[in-house]
Amino acid sequence: MEYLGHVISGNGVATDPTKIQVVQQWPSPTNIKQLRGFLGLTGYYRKFIKHYAMITKPLTDLLRKDTQFIWTPNVEAAFQLLKNCLIKAPVLTLPNFSKQFVVETDASDQGIGAVLMQDNHPIAYLSKPLGPRNQALSVYEKECLAILLAIEKWRSYLQHQQFIIRTDHKSLQYLTDQRVSTKLQLKALLKLMDLQYTIQYKKGTSNAAADALSRYDWSQDLNAISECVPTWIQKLKEGYEDDPTAKQLLTEMAVSSEHQKGYSL
Questions:
Q1: 164 in Cβ contact with 197 (< 8 Å)
Q2: What distances in angstroms separate CA 157 from CA 142, 145, 175, one per listed residue?
Q3: Distance of alpha carbon 93 from its chain centroid, rounded?
Q4: Under the phi-then-psi rule, with left for phi > 0, alpha for psi from -120 to 50, and beta for the rest, what region is 204?
Q5: Phi, psi (degrees; rounded to nearest 5) at 191
Q6: Is the pLDDT of residue 219 over 70?
Q7: 8, 105, 154, 212: which sits with the fewest CB atoms below 10 Å from its CB?
Q8: Does the 102-218 domain belong in CATH 3.30.420.10?
């Protein structure tokens, strides 16, 4: 049985794989910058990980000055152990609806990241790459998009009482008071309209978890993408081949995503 991001069975409570997928698939770092990003995420929850300093020692040793970056089997073992610690109890916890939820978000040039928490305890992670169009957005719009995606993902947790949104973009504190000037801003206000929330500013240096998720290196995964497509969707696509109107529309939208009759692909 599934219960809000957790799988409950005779063996106890386990985390839903979709909530921790981004951590499970985190690739082995190939340079110090990538390693610092991963340690930034894990360090944010170090108080929930037993023997954190001992586990991370092979990794932190690589950060020392004048130390050559060599990814040895011993370092890889420490990396995998740390990932496992991050996605297992007591790090990830069940939601408690008598307590307030907190959503921390961040956006970078490459993607967006978010963490759903209670009492600084993570419940679920979210990370998503930005396509070429969204990469061209302003910093404000990217941060706004991060909030939008997090709210859409975790609405079932947030709609029953007031919650907190934390962002490292200061001007978003005044989202509801600002003049609406972009489509994203309007969409965010509409999505948040029926919810009770407070937006708080949090310095980027202390927003390590969401920041690390937003800077996840998606380029290393591009050759290993898999997707489960329901049978009815596949049959629907095959049906387009027998429909001249649909085939014409698909041809036109392959050239331009903006269709004069209002269709979108």
A1: yes
A2: 23, 19, 22
A3: 17
A4: alpha
A5: -65, -35
A6: no
A7: 8
A8: yes
Q: Position of tokens 């409570």?
A: 13
pTM, 2 dp = 0.57
Instruction: Report residue 75 as tokens.
Output: 């370092």
Write out pLDDT tens, residues 86-131: 777 566 677 888 999 999 998 888 788 888 888 888 887 777 888 8
Strands (E), 83-158: 102-107, 111-118, 121-129
Q: Are strands 197-201 and 163-167 parallel, antiparallel or unpaired?
A: parallel
Crossing angle (nearest 10°) for helices 183-192 and 139-158: 20
Q: How many CB atoms lie within 10 A of CB 140?
A: 18
pLDDT, one tens digit per residue, over 231-246 is 777 777 777 778 888 8
In 3-state terms, what secondary structure has residue 28? Answer: coil
Please identify which residue in the block is written with the tokens 């934390």: 166
Q: Delimit the CATH 3.30.420.10 region(s) of the chain.
A: 102-218
